[in-house]
Design goal:
heterodimer, A: about 350 residues, alpha/beta, Rossmann fold, 6-stranded parallel β-sheet, two-stranded antiparallel sheet, 13 helices, about 45% helix, B: about 325 residues, 2 domains, 7-stranded mixed β-sheet, 5-stranded mixed β-sheet, about 35% helix, globular
Chain lengths: ~350, ~325
Amino acid sequence: MASVAFDTSDGKVEALRRMLLARAFEDTVQDQFADGEIPGFVHLSQGQEAVAVGAGSALEKDDYITSTHRAHGHSIGKGLNPNRLLAELYGKETGYCEGKGGSMHVATLEEGMLGAQPIVGESAPLATGAGITAQYNDADWIALAFVGDGAVAAGQVHEALNFASTWELPVIYLIENNLYSEGMRFDEQHNIEDLADMAAAYGIPGKIVDGQDIEAVREVVSDARERAVAGEGPTIIEAKTYRYRGHFEGDQEPYRSDDEIEEWRSERDPISNYSETLRKEGIMTGNEYDDLKAEVEEIMIDAVEFARTSDEAPSDVAYQDVFVDPAPEIEAHRERLAREEPDWGAY
Amino acid sequence: MPKTESSNADDPVSMTVREAIREGLREEMQADENVMLYGQDERDGESFEVTSGLYEDFGERRVRNTPISEAAQVGSAVGAAATGLRPVVELSFANFIGVCFDQIMNQVGNTRYMFGGASKVPLVLRATEGGGVGAAAQHSSTPHTLVAHLPGIKTVAPATPAGSKGLIKTSIRSDDPIMFFENKTIYGERGEVPSANSHTVPLGEANVARSGEDVTVVATQRLFNVAMTVADDIVNDASLEVIDPQSLYPLDAETILDSVAKTGRLVIADESPMSYGFHAEISARVVEDGFFDLDAPPQRVGVPDTPIPFAPGLEQEIMPGNAEIERAVRRVL
């Protein structure tokens, strides 16, 4: 999906619509997971939409993102198709990865999603590698790695930052600081207030942005993108944000209070606040907000129908795509496991 | 510069394993603009001078030094490979795969599969392994079975110059991720290599280097050379068939089974620790599919599950060599 310009009324409304879609997607996953329709486990990102969509709005179609275990919002922000994304969560053949990846492993290179990486920190080296390709080919696209605040405690993130800085790669490392690493508070994980301060150690810019303000996020990512395309190297952006749901669905959340969650929801919700802004600016009038909401809800009703009615991939798919050129061992083991009788050759 | 061109393109050329890998890299870099090399001290030829001269020939864009960051080296190689390059990443001593094992196991091996074939990952990871040079425990291990065990990665460990050149070229051309294990003690071993630019060795193809009737010896890397020597030494007592598997995964089990069908006896020599490793895999394949061809239990020759000690006498104590292979052969005769 191409970038969204926020200097027009249409662009601003589109940005709001995308945030609403990301929210509706997550709300749907929450409900369908609770109903037992979605297998495995899921990590939701309601409350962080301005980061995902703000960044996605600043990127071009050919840019790549890498993501984390909390990847749905980033995927919607990059413009992925909600039907195929939800079908992947349902484990269906029509999903982006034929149901072999699920919520935590979504990738579609054609749409600029290089991969969700649920091992904390892995999104950073992966995006660094895409940056190598962009630089090697003198291309005009870049890579953006979403990393959580928890990932900044992981060594490979620092290796990636140092590597990218040394090579001046066109990569943006966008730290979504939602204040919690799994169930651990920020100050249990880090001894500094602002993770963006690390940038000094790599000799690159470190920007802090209000992660609940989509226009601010878009602007800072856009600036970092310009710098990257100009060959000036990577940027660290720390977006201060908050997730409303637990680390995973089912998390009892003993580590924080209901009051804290309610305070963010009521005062700092990125969608409510932005719709209010657009109303005040006279950009959105009348029933437009309700219409947008109804539109994304309709999209999600269709997506659920699509996912439900899609088939699971046939069993052969379980054996495919380990390699481009298959290793004979896989079929040989499969065949042996299926044998009903001994096959001892000529004996 | 090794002599790599001859008046007749089909004439074999004598070169070392080191030169063979270097020339394979050079030819593939010439053939494909998307091939690039990076690693620590890559510009200066790395610790064992394998890539010496390539920086001078190909320049900064294609031969680059990295920070000492194995995790970022491997993780970035996945990203670079998925987006169109063919990175050849050098990890120096194979023990250092411990530093980036997450990337090897979870990224390199899983990426294509978990994304439903959305990307291919045409990368080569090179690392040098093996004891015998007084480098002690953390620079002497032979951990290739750890990698061969992982789904989604093809693993090679050639023994000869011809195998080394042919397999590095095939590995670079492969659309799948390959871990290319070198042995630091055989870089100087010399042998005949077909001079033609088209010389390659397919993945999963063993080399029956010496034909024999009495005992099949499957031997890798340094121990392949040792096995060839033992075969000469005991020629009056037994006729050995010596097989260099070249690829660990996929494995050319068929060639090994055919050989055991002829000899009825099997010795497996590999410098990795003896438990849960390459030796066990070869034994299992032969027992599964050639049990009734066996006239004696298969014999394992390897390191007896110890780290590699520093002191020369102690290192020699645990390093398998001529005596261990010869005893194993004589046990089954």
